[in-house]
């Protein structure tokens, strides 16, 4: 890999109030652009029958229990921005966030009074690369890493402190739709791919530990994946086959531990296939493009203008069997395109999701029936691909197809 080209100095934490930006060029990718995300979907399948009481549906009348004010907006480029992510790994860096779009990965800082400054930008030498997803991680010393992937199927691991590429990891045969970090072990990340697989990686060593695919795997693109917040062995994935699958790594955990001490080439690591999930659910009748664990419950979103909280009821035998208890439904109008992803604050008290009309719906996840906290709008109207809620939920960020980044802050009219 070619050494990165440095264009200006690094903006460190002590002088971060000064607007400085660097551009570091990544090594080349090698695949062609795969086209735009998110055509409206019309086909569907039949739901698995739910058990328990009928799901409670939220009202679209905002409660306005919390009011947010648009404090800043900036256009990064004239290309769509597909991903935006706050740093929840390091408490000292909670005010940092990253965006991806086109062949660029950017790092920003949220300052007081609604200000946003660009700290770093990294640009891939392959102009046809289009990054779709970004997540924060760290190395074993706790230094921040950014992990990004997209159309080329290459995972870029960026050393943010030293402004250089830590690793470029190859393994997927198609584009990468989402990457998520294991909060219990931040060197572990999951990637969801168009090649119908989910992969577990150690970004410290560059090792592919496990591949979730095969006889019981997804039958179309995998669009989203997430680690269970407390059960280190359990993950959930979803995709274009309209299913949500829950997998266990318990029988393979020795390989996870081995990945931290492996000293040979990553290509020689005994990567294992996990072919059968613990559980398969068809909660939605169309593409499922975002899922997150809420304790042992799952919040998932399809292209059917809603998010759903449900409980997977898993049977021990045979693998994959079980039932679904749908608990609550959160309507999201004009959200019938795929690749529109929601976000939550660190404690999962609220969720923010955009739509194709440039609106954001902020839902209370701890109330029943569901309460719409507020509805936000940006102009000009453009599809909001992803939101990012801050650690405490007081700031909401969004990125959209027109390259716009918006910042809303919690607003107290009585004290402002």
Automatic annotation (TrEMBL):
Spans of the WD repeats?
Answer: 169-211, 215-250
Query: Which InterPro entries does the record match to this protein?
Result: PcG_WD-repeat, WD40/YVTN_repeat-like_dom_sf, WD40_PAC1, WD40_repeat_CS, WD40_repeat_dom_sf, WD40_rpt
PROSITE patterns recorded = WD_REPEATS_1, WD_REPEATS_2, WD_REPEATS_REGION
Which Pfam families does this entry report, sorted A to Z? WD40
Q: Which UniProt keywords apply?
A: Repeat, Transcription, Transcription regulation, WD repeat
Q: Which family does it belong to?
A: Belongs to the WD repeat ESC family.
**What protein is this chain from?**
Polycomb group protein FERTILIZATION-INDEPENDENT ENDOSPERM
Q: What is the lineage of its organism?
A: Eukaryota, Viridiplantae, Streptophyta, Embryophyta, Tracheophyta
């Amino acid at each position: 890999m070619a050494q990165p080209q440095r264009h200006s100095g690094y903006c460190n934490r002590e002088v971060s109030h000064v607007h400085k930006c660097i551009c570091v060029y990544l090594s080349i990718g090698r695949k062609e652009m795969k086209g735009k995300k998110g055509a409206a979907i019309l086909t569907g399948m039949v739901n698995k029958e739910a058990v328990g009481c009928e799901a409670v549906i939220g009202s679209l009348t905002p409660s306005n229990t919390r009011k947010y004010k648009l404090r800043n907006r900036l256009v990064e480029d004239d290309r769509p921005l597909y991903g935006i992510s706050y740093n929840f790994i390091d408490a000292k860096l909670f005010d940092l966030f990253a965006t991806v779009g086109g062949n660029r990965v950017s790092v920003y800082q949220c300052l007081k009074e609604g200000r946003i400054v660009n700290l770093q930008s990294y640009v891939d030498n392959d102009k046809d690369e289009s990054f779709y997803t970004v997540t924060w991680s760290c190395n074993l010393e706790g230094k921040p890493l950014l992990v990004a992937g997209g159309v080329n199927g290459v995972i870029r691991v960026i050393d943010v402190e030293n402004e250089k590429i830590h690793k470029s990891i190859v393994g997927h045969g198609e584009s990468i739709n989402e990457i998520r970090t294991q909060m219990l072990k931040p060197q572990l990340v999951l990637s969801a791919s168009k090649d119908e697989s989910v992969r577990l990686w150690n970004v410290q060593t560059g090792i592919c530990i496990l591949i979730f695919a095969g006889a019981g795997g997804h039958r179309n693109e995998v669009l989203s994946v997430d680690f269970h917040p407390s059960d280190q062995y359990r993950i959930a994935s979803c995709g274009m086959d309209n299913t949500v699958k829950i997998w266990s790594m318990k029988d393979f955990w020795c390989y996870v531990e081995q990945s931290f001490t492996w000293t040979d080439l990553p290509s020689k690591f005994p990567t294992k296939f996990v072919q059968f999930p613990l559980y398969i659910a068809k909660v939605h009748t169309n593409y499922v493009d975002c899922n997150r664990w809420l304790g042992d419950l799952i919040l998932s979103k399809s292209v059917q203008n809603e998010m759903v909280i449900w409980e997977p009821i898993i049977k021990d035998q045979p693998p994959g069997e079980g039932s679904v208890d749908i608990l609550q439904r959160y309507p999201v109008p004009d959200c019938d395109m795929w690749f529109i992803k929601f976000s939550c604050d660190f404690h999962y008290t609220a969720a923010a999701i955009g739509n194709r009309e440039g609106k954001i719906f902020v839902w209370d996840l701890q109330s029943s029936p569901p309460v719409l906290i507020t509805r936000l709008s940006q102009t000009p109207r453009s599809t909001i691909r992803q939101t990012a809620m801050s650690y405490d939920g007081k700031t909401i960020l969004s990125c959209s197809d027109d390259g716009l980044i918006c910042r809303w802050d919690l607003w107290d009219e009585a004290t402002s």
